[in-house]
Amino acid sequence: MTPRGAQAAALDWQATKANRAPHWRDGPNGLTCRADRRQAHLVDICQALALDLDQAQAAARAAMREQRHQAARALVLRLCRLDQTGRIVWAVRTPATSPKTPAAARADFNTRWAGAPLPIRDGAVTIQRQRIDHAQALQWLTSAKTPTKTSAKPATLSDVVARLNEQ
Predict the structure, then answer these.
(1) What is the pLDDT of residues 87-122, one digit of tens each?
(2) Sorting pLDDT into bands at 50, 70 and 90, what band is 29?
(3) Cβ neighbours of 72 (radius 10 Å)
(4) CA dihedral of 50, 54, 59, 62, whole degrees rounded to 10
(5) Beta strands in 59-157 (DSSP E)
(6) Which of 22, 43, 80, 153 has the smallest number of Cβ neighbours within 10 A?
């Protein structure tokens, strides 16, 4: 690789991959991730960096759980809502929530399914082939519905002028 190509690769790495957690996958040969378009095994990484394999596996599995948790939460908040009775129902699909879906398919979904309750099987709902605990999904939607902090009404120009005149 030429020095210019190496510099470009380093800049690309800094811009797109640096300081991001790896996306671990559990395979037949243990935990792996992609590093610079190649598969990297956790065992090899630990040997190269002289790290404790057990601690690294525990950290990688915790990262995998957290990634699954965040992905499930994002799905629920993007594609579902609570109705007046507190049931989880399909939300209306918009270009913002389903950008890759053609407009005709979104309109068809909104006609057939928007507002329909999600079926609960064995205490879980299924959204895009992912089983998500029903109680957890309810908690996410409830906490998203209620604001976590109170936001003050923004002051208008007339409010500012009135406060200045009072002083």
Answers:
(1) 999 999 999 989 999 999 999 999 999 999 999 999
(2) confident
(3) 19
(4) 160
(5) 80-82, 88-90, 124-127, 130-133
(6) 153
